[in-house]
Amino acid sequence: MTPDLSALVDSIVARMGAAEDRGQVASYIPELAKVDPAQFGIAIATADGRMLTGGDADTSFSIQSISKVFALTLALGKVGDQLWQRVGREPSGNAFNSIVQLEQEHGIPRNPFINAGAIVVADVNLGGHQPRVAIGEMLRFVRYLSGDDSIAINEDVAASETTTGFRNMALANYMRAFGNVRHPVDLVLGTYFHQCAIEMSCRQLALAGRYLMLDGRHPDGGRVVSPGRARRINALMLTCGHYDASGDFAFRVGIPGKSGVGGGILAIVPGRAAIAVWCPGLNDNGNSMLGTQALQMLAEATGWSVFSAP
Length: 310
Ligand code: GLN
What we know:
Layout: H1 5-18, E1 41-46, E2 51-55, E3 61-62, H2 67-79, H3 100-104, H4 115-126, H5 131-146, E4 152-153, H6 155-164, H7 166-177, H8 185-196, E5 198-200, H9 202-208, H10 210-213, H11 227-240, H12 246-252, E6 257-259, E7 264-269, E8 273-278, H13 289-302
Antiparallel strand pairs: 1-2, 1-8, 3-5, 4-5, 6-7, 7-8
The protein binds glutamine.
C-alpha cells in the first residue's frame, strides 16, 4: 500500500532542507558555479495523472546530461538499431567525461549516456543539417513531451561550455579520427552544448519523463516510442545513467535514473511514476548528492523498485 505521497514529499523537502553536507556545485562550467546550492526541488508525475511537487519544483535549472535521454530517443527514431553500430550499451565504469576506453575500443563509446556516447548521438541527430535545426527539433520534442512551450535554452550556459569544453572537444576530435563523428566537430559540439543548456523545472522534467513510465505512450494518447524501446531506454538509464556510480544508484534507489551536472535527476518507476529531483550540489561522481538521497528516501518509503514485486 503506497503511503500518502503528498506527506512524503513534504518530509523529503524538510529533510533535504536541513541537510548540512550538500556536495559541490559543478564549477568546470563557469555559469553553473553561480547556482545557489541551498535549493531543492522534487516533482512526481504519477501514472494515474496526478502531480505532486515540493520545494523549488518550479525553478528552472540546466538539465545537462539528462538531455541525453531525449537525444537518444530522437536518434533511435532516426536510425533505429543501427545506432548500436556506433555506440555501445555497456556501463563504462569510468567518469562521465573519460577518454580512456576510446582508443582500445576504436572510437566506439561504451554507452549513449557518457559524454563520448552523447556526442555521437548528437552527430546522428545533426543528420546533415545546421545545429539550429537539430537544436530546434530537440526543443520541440521536450516541449511536446512535457506539454509546456515555455521550455527554453540558456544561451549563457551554452556559451560558457563552448569556451571551456576542452575535454568534450578532445573526445569529439578523437572520435572523428576514427570516423565515428562525421560532421565538423564545432557543429556537433554546438548541438551537444545547446541540448545540455536546456532549462527545465522539476515539474516540466517529470512531465517530460512520462512516456518512459507509460511503455512509450504520451499521456495525450500519442505514441512516442514502442514499448520495447521505452523498456530499453529505461534499461540503459539503470545501467549507465549515473556513470561509474550507476551500480550504487541501482543498489540504493533501484529504479532507472539519469543525472546531470546541473544537479537534476530524472527517475522512472515503470507503470507508476516519473520523478524529477534537483539539488545543485554534486557528489564525487558528478551526481546530485541530495537528489540521490531524496530518491532513496522516496523509494524506501513507497517500495518502488524494478527489483521487487509491485
Ligand atoms: N554538458 C556537460 C558536459 O559535457 C554534461 C555532463 C553531465 O551532465 N554529466 O560536461
